[in-house]
Amino acid sequence: MNIPKLTIRQPVQLVSEGLAPAAALPELEKVAARYAVALTPDVVALIDRSDPNDPIALQYVPSAKELDSEPVDRADPIGDAARSPVEGIVHRYPDRVLFKLVHVCAVYCRFCFRREMVGPGKENALTADVYARALDYIHEHTEIWEVILTGGDPLMLSPRRMAEVMRDLAAIPHVKIIRIHTRVPVVDPSRISEDMVEAFRVKGATTWIAVHANHARELTEEARAACARLIDAGIPMVSQSVLLRGVNDNPAALEALMRAFVECRIKPYYLHQGDLAPGTEHLRTTIAEGQQLMRAIRGRLSGLCQPEYVLDIPGGFGKSPIGPGYLSQADDRHADLRYRVVDYCGDVHLYPPEP
Ligand SMILES: *Cc1c(COP(=O)(O)O)cnc(C)c1O
Ligand code: SF4
């Protein structure tokens, strides 16, 4: 199979590349009219066309199921709009803000929680005015310790523009941490050039990178090398994954993914419950299934491999850990508080133990 050299953006290309059946074309055109489509050559090369349930294809190849809408779906599933004091900024927690620099991504994930906001049809980078006003907001709010660059994917900026943004932010005295949320090191590793790495090394702030990947196969040799370039330059990395039906909702897949991150010196950070974005119901698991998976990897995998399972509460209330509980209050009549604690095998113990 020839691997295309350019990003696939049209359903007709999906058909000609053997990634979708010709009969699906009319429906896929409808999906593409509503939600952006993009598969980089690196991603296309990973897809096993002989597997109708390929976990890479499920993440990026559009499906007619995306036209289904559920009553619980929301266009703004995590309530960004409710917490946006100026365009480009989301300020939900006191010590940190999201700064949305671009509305485009290298790939478009079929489960994206911002799918109504991202895509090449949306306005691209912030205008100079909007950018200046967002910077002013950060300047004026001295409680902002951390700025999280997100989007879209901020690594769609050129290294030169990225360097300017990094310098502007690092020059603000109270901004100590600049965190970049991106999928680029995995889906388009060649963008992690020497200039891009250099852009992240700024005086006055510490840069962290949170990389998004959902399946161990996404961490190719090239992706691992891109992450190593960043980490070797002194930039710590953490991971973010979304729990996805058919992609990583079994203990073996989750284990392989978390081990791959740690082998790359990337600390697993969050495992997200799928957000209520429209047309993504077929890719979501239940929270009960997510908790069962978290129980399955607890104890069996190194503590380094444990992400926190979180839910972004619809309406703009932030993220909460929703992993299984291991501690409960024991029902005893003693005045002293006693707990029941569950070990990794599922056995229950009293704490403090019976004398
Ligand atoms: C997710 C999110 C953050 C980052 O949260 P952490 O728990 O620090 O990773 C910050 N602001 C907003 C608005 C968010 O949605
Ligand atoms: S890279 Fe992130 S913002 Fe872009 S489509 Fe995927 S999940 Fe959405």
What are the main properties of this structure?
9-stranded mixed β-sheet; binds pyridoxal-5'-phosphate; TIM Barrel; 355 residues; alpha/beta; binds iron/sulfur cluster; 3-stranded antiparallel β-sheet; globular; 3 domains; 12 strands
| DSSP strand content | 15-25%
Q: What does the main sheet amount to?
A: 9 strands, mixed
Distinct ligand kinds: pyridoxal-5'-phosphate, iron/sulfur cluster
Q: Please identify the structural class as seen in this structure.
A: alpha/beta
Number of spatially distinct domains:
3
**CATH-scheme architecture of the largest domain:** Alpha-Beta Barrel
Radius of gyration: 21 Å
Span from first to last CA? Answer: 69 Å
Report the top-level CATH class of the largest domain. Answer: Alpha Beta
What is the number of helical segments per DSSP (H or I, 4+ residues)? 11
Query: Multimeric state of these chains?
Result: single chain
Give average pLDDT, whole number: 94
Report the strand count.
12
Strand order of the largest sheet: 1-2-3-4-5-6-7-8-9
Low-pLDDT runs of 5+ residues are: none
Q: Helix proportion of residues, in percent? A: 25-40%
CATH fold-type name of the largest domain: TIM Barrel
Q: Note the overall shape.
A: globular
**Quick one: CATH superfamily of the largest domain?**
Aldolase class I
Question: Order of SSEs, N→C?
Answer: HHHHEEHEHEHHEHEHEHEEEEE
